[in-house]
Design goal:
This protein is mainly beta. The protein has 5 helices and 17 strands.
């Protein structure tokens, strides 16, 4: 699948969510962030120092996934509107064989300083050692809800152990319940893919039968992810176990739910939550990713019953 160049401004899904949230004015003030991409020297420098990013794209079968990208500083190399990625998702990952022509969303995160940068665009070439991204959007996000931690990225010593299933196991559920961080992948029919960071106190992601849900915390009011979900229900989740080097990837469908502020689980009282129904699950162990020295974000709302 290919997309047309991203137009400036918000798409109809984003505008719809902004209206229902009553935040149109606040969002309009930041609309310039969505202008066509130019990787400034600041963005290029930030990307060049990163060792971790999350990538959202469709696999060769057309299924949406979000995957970790790991490498030594320098594996992300930006030039104006081009991003060279000198790695690809590890062996056994659904996006290991990332095809050219795919819209992708990438978010690079520096956990130690709570900084993040999104780069959305299209893969114009892919090879064994990585891929080339034509960047169509690039903008930073605020530090809220990022847990401070020190990453330790090592080389992949051996193929990670991979398990595939159609449903969550008890081990998957335990990882989700203790997570303080995950990544949400969404896609729009014409604007392409997006990857976003979600964080909170352990327990902010809930399970309801086979569904995963979480309250939507206050953010930049652009509603990129929620706007995509309002337009296309396809979505994907990536959970990381920073203590063991395990990852959990889910693909399925998501829906935005509007609830009365103060309803059980409304940690930030925004009246919004996202419900995700997984249809396929991939879990991997032995991923060369560890972290230590966790300091919770001071912006994390208290998890409510």
């Amino acid at each position: 699948m290919t997309t047309q160049p991203i137009a400036a401004g918000f798409h109809s899904g984003e505008l719809s969510v902004q209206r229902q949230a009553g935040l149109e004015f606040e969002a309009a003030r930041l609309e310039g962030m969505l202008a066509p991409a130019h990787l400034s020297h600041g963005a290029e420098g930030f990307l060049a120092q990163r060792e971790f990013a999350a990538l959202t794209a469709r696999d060769a079968d057309g299924t949406l996934w979000t995957s970790p990208l790991l490498g030594p500083a320098g594996f992300l190399e930006g030039f104006d509107t081009t991003l060279v990625v000198h790695t690809r998702p590890g062996s056994g990952d659904p996006l290991h064989e990332l095809p050219a022509g795919e819209p992708v969303g990438l978010i690079a995160v520096e956990f130690a300083t709570r900084r993040r940068l999104r780069v959305n665009g299209t893969v114009v070439a892919a090879a064994e050692g990585g891929f080339l991204l034509d960047a169509e959007q690039s903008y930073g996000n605020c530090p809220s809800y990022i847990q401070q931690r020190r990453l330790e990225i090592g080389p992949e010593q051996a193929p990670a152990a991979v398990e595939r299933s159609d449903a969550l196991t008890d081990a998957h559920r335990a990882l989700i319940r203790r997570a303080d961080t995950f990544f949400l992948g969404t896609i729009h029919p014409t604007r392409g893919a997006d990857s976003s960071h979600k964080g909170g106190e352990p327990g902010f992601v809930r399970l309801d039968g086979d569904d995963v849900w979480w309250p939507d915390y206050a953010g930049n009011n652009l509603f990129n992810s929620l706007g995509n979900i309002a337009s296309d229900a396809e979505a994907s989740l990536l959970f990381l176990d920073f203590a063991t080097g395990s990852t959990l990837q889910l693909t399925g469908t998501a829906a935005l739910e509007w609830v009365t502020p103060g309803t059980a689980g409304e940690d930030d009282a925004t009246g919004r939550r996202v419900r995700f129904h997984p249809t396929r699950v991939v879990s991997r162990t032995g991923v060369p990713l560890r972290a230590s020295g966790v300091v919770p974000s001071p912006h994390n709302p208290r998890v409510t019953a």
